[in-house]
Amino acid sequence: MLTIKDPTKGLVAHGVSTCAGCGLELAIRVILDVMGENTIIVIPPSCSALFSGFGNETTLRIPGVQGNLENTAAIAAGVRAGLEYQGKGDINVLGLAGDGGTADIGLQSLSGALERGDKILYVCYDNEAYMNTGIQGSSSTPMGAWTTTTPYGKPVKRKNLMQIVGAHGIPYAASASIGYIDDLRKKVVKAKAAIAEGPAFLHIHAPCPTGWGYDPALTVELAKLAVSTRCWNLFELVDGSKVNITKKVNKVKPAEEYLTPQKRFTGIDATTLAMVQTQIDKDYARLELLAGLSCETDSAA
Amino acid sequence: MKKVMLEGNFAAAEAMRLARIGVVSAYPITPQSPIAEVLSEYTGDGRLDAKYIRVESEHTAMSVAIGAQLTGVRTGTATSSVGLALMFEMLGVAAGLRLPIVMPVVNRALVSPWSLWCDHQDSMAARDTGWMQLYAEDCQDVLDLCLIAYRAAENGDVLVPTMVCMDGFFLSHMSQAVYVPSQQDVDDFLPPYQAKNLKLDIADPMFVNNLIPPTEFMEMRYQQHTGFSNALPVLNTAMKEFETQFGRSHSPIEPYCCDDAEAILISLGSMSGSVKEMVDQYRAQGKKVGNLKIVSFRPFPEEDLVAAIPRGARVGVLDRSMSMGAPAGPVCNDVRSAISNQGLNVRIQGFVVGLGGRDVRPVAITSAFDRLLAGQYDKDVQWLDMSDNAMTLRQYREAI
């Protein structure tokens, strides 16, 4: 057994090879802080693989395996099954994948694990494109955004991943943001508790200065702007039906305030911008409606 | 040891049950489905103490097996045809992580066109993924080779996953009286599984399968290659130990009437039984022919195979698949390579037979033997027992 010699506090090394201002790095530090060392992590080849490490080096103090791009949930399910068979069901199994590895190529294996009720925590950090391979568009890339495969702006709206996950009726799912660390931490705590019953899912907004084109110092600020413009909504989905908005946005700012600082939206035209704003308004109205229905169901019960 | 009427699929499932696999991940596909079904029954009624993960694809079946085996559990899955093809990416992962997973493969043709029936194109397409491949001739072989496979694959000098291949329908759905050993005897033969290399363990944290630089990749591939170099002697030993424990002998190659043969047909799998029947008929007419059955295609038992061919014998290979664009089918290509590598100069006639569920009929075998006995050699691979309309069947191109 190797003796680990470094002064790192926590389970993630200081000094990792993520880009300056990486939203994911903030997220993983919080996630592992809550999950603790009694955790096994599954990571696909992606930005998160920077935490798997390279050659003889890793950045993590916990056991982990790098799987393939499309099977984070499947390998996590296998690890979980192996542990349960050996009576080690108290060990947390965590999958950490990006939006491409989750909403695109990994959707099938994720759906399989959620439907089976495998007791894993699956975290999708969403930087809204295939960043590690060079900023190619994913199904989670927002409308109007430039990527290297949507050079004239993405013409269609993004996939609603939370709604897809919610359709599986799992014990706990939540969207979160690295702009709201306390909220994120609380949700990881709840997700960790939920995996005693079944799968838990977190969808974390993780701004990417390299891919989005903004000053790395503004990552947290931009994440907050995404929420205050309702471009990214913070809510929980309990048992697939109960919706709880954890950050109500009463004084909404126009989407433009969030989009303008980002180079990826430079070429967006007025028509697309109007479509983006309309979609944002519809999504939030729907979310409030669902949250209201949840309250009514609660009081009825 | 009791004798039970078992179809090949059930013989495989019995072997997996007796090997005490702890995690099953299975996805149904014709003709493998009965394995997925019966293992769910065994885990449901307690005959097998295992977690049954009802996966949504073969890719996930292998991914779950890999994840579970990394925690130190013997796992089980099985597949066929396009299922094996979908699993392809993960086959290399299991092999590279040195996880000795044993997987029955029920051989079925690959698309296109669609076929539900047997040929070896599926497992042959996966032959370079770093898995051992053993081919069963009958249902007893299926059970025996699975048990032998666990023993050989899990050897610390090997750590290579293994496919136990059985011909779809010809074996998977054909009943045969099969000796099923007692749990105690199998427990004596197969100790509980222990992770001997990479593992996921809270008490000994390691990060498995991260990116590695070009300065290390070749060396790690060489470790796999060395595992394969060790595999053949370990497999031989495992087969001898199996014989001591259970009384049935197995060998990586099985020569039948080869010692004085003037013509030999090399074969894999269930068609070997038909070839041996024809050998008997030819021998009754005083014609000296033989059959050389390859049980272990990977590792390829090159020296034993060449040694089993008497000098001067004419040799043909019956391939149940084709390596398109290559001189012949994959088995023939390997036999030619082995002959050359052993310093011999023998021309090996390639034959393709029995694709997409076609029976390897006596007419195919006799035409192959007769060509060899007559000294006919054609450098082009010969497709046997084909219809006359081969080149007009479903040809919709405009006439030029």
Automatic annotation (TrEMBL), chain A:
CDD domains: TPP_PFOR_porB_like (cd03376). Keywords: Oxidoreductase. GO terms for molecular function: oxidoreductase activity; thiamine pyrophosphate binding. Residues 58-204 form the Thiamine pyrophosphate enzyme TPP-binding domain. GO terms for biological process: small molecule metabolic process. It comes from the Bacteria. The keyword Oxidoreductase applies. InterPro entries: PorB-like (IPR051479), THDP-binding (IPR029061), TPP_enzyme_TPP-bd (IPR011766). PANTHER family: 2-OXOACID OXIDOREDUCTASE (FERREDOXIN), PYRUVATE SYNTHASE SUBUNIT PORB. This is Ketoisovalerate ferredoxin oxidoreductase, beta subunit. It comes from Desulfopila aestuarii DSM 18488. The lineage of its organism: Bacteria, Pseudomonadati, Thermodesulfobacteriota, Desulfobulbia, Desulfobulbales.
From TrEMBL, chain B:
One of its GO terms (biological process) is response to oxidative stress. The keyword GTP-binding does not apply. Residues 15-231 form the Pyruvate flavodoxin/ferredoxin oxidoreductase pyrimidine binding domain. Keywords: Oxidoreductase, Pyruvate. Residues 261-363 form the Pyruvate:ferredoxin oxidoreductase core domain. The keyword Acetylation does not apply. It holds the Pfam family POR_N. GO terms for molecular function: oxidoreductase activity, acting on the aldehyde or oxo group of donors. This is Pyruvate ferredoxin oxidoreductase, alpha subunit. It comes from Desulfopila aestuarii DSM 18488.
